[in-house]
Amino acid sequence: MNEFDLKAGQWDMNPMHAARTNAIAEHILQTITLKKEMSVLEYGAGLIDLEKEPYQAEFDLIVTQMVLHHVTDIECFVIKRDQTNDRFAKYLLFLLTAAK
Q1: d(CA 39, CA 13)
Q2: Spatial CA neighbour of 83 closest among 54, 59, 42, 43
Q3: pLDDT, tens digit, for every residue of 15-28?
Q4: Residues 49-79: pLDDT tens digits?
Q5: From its phi and psi, is residue 44 left (phi > 0), alpha (psi between -120 and 50) or beta?
Q6: Distance between CA 90 and CA 84 in Å, rounded?
Q7: What whole-number distance in Å separates Cα of residue 100 and Cα of residue 97?
Q8: How many CB atoms lie within 10 A of CB 17?
Q9: Which one, of 29, 1, 14, lies nearest residue 66 by Cα?
Q10: What angle do CA 77, 83, 88 make, to 5 degrees?
């Protein structure tokens, strides 16, 4: 088992991590009207590498927390996704541009 897997197994036991997750969830609930028919992608550092495996589905909402620093070339990832008229990529591109 690698170091990431060891830390991941204990991640949810840290009160700071749980508090951050709860704060994000609460903000989403206060900001967005969620409906059962919505399609939501939680983009985590899991099994699918979106840099290499493009997704074809449309989502009403994409949420992420503590993961974008794992994307090796975020600008390339965003620009590649933006070429497919991807709303998530357009928003990330906006955030990247605003941060400069």
Answers
A1: 29
A2: 54
A3: 998 898 899 889 88
A4: 666 666 677 788 878 887 777 777 767 766 6
A5: beta
A6: 10
A7: 5
A8: 14
A9: 14
A10: 60
